[in-house]
Amino acid sequence: MTQNNSIENRTYKFALRIVKAYKYLSNQRNEYVLSKQMLRSGTSIGAMMREAKFAQSRADFVNKTSIALKEANETLYWIELLHDSDYIDDKTFDSIHTEADEITAILASIVKSTKENTEKYDNAPSDLLNS
Predict the structure, then answer these.
(1) Nearest 5°: CA angle at 19, between 18 and 25?
(2) How many CB atoms lie within 10 A of CB 130?
(3) Which residue of 16, 43, 61, 70 has the fewest CB atoms within a 10 Å radius of its CB?
(4) Which of 3, 118, 107 is nearest to 45 (CA)?
């Protein structure tokens, strides 16, 4: 990873936080169902971004990043549900929810800008592309 704060690095660190939260919820709070859902979606974000790194085309990149975005949004849902059902305290919720929300916003921006750039490239006059 080239940057310390790259989306790939950030989603990996987030996945580690999710794994630790899952361990805590299952071992200390005896909560298995909701936390398992959070574990699956929360770790999937980084896995999809790792796959996107070696996408075969722009369309493949957009597809994998879009899936990561969906997983991030789903993770927000599970975090909110765990908080509202009193499995996660306010301090923990604020920290992990903020990170998930920021990752979601970054992924949405990446998908949007990549789609826009792809459309610009696809609609460029052929003489510009061949120079």
Answers:
(1) 85
(2) 6
(3) 16
(4) 107
Q: What's the pTM value of the predicted model, to 2 decimals? A: 0.87
CB 15 within 8 Å of CB 46: yes
Go through 60-99 and write b for each residue having 16 or more CB atoms within 10 A of its CB, e for each that does not: ebbbbbbbbbbbbbbbbebbeebbeeebbeeebbeebbeb
Q: Which two tokens stand for residue 102?
A: 């920021």
Is residue 117 classed as helix, strand or coil in its secondary structure? helix
- Cα separation values, 24 from 17, 50, 75, 95, Å: 11, 26, 17, 15
Q: What is the number of other CB atoms lying within 10 angstroms of the CB of residue 42?
A: 29
CA end-to-end span of the chain, whole Å?
32
Summarize pLDDT for 10-40 with one digit per residue, the tens: 999 999 999 999 999 999 999 999 999 999 9
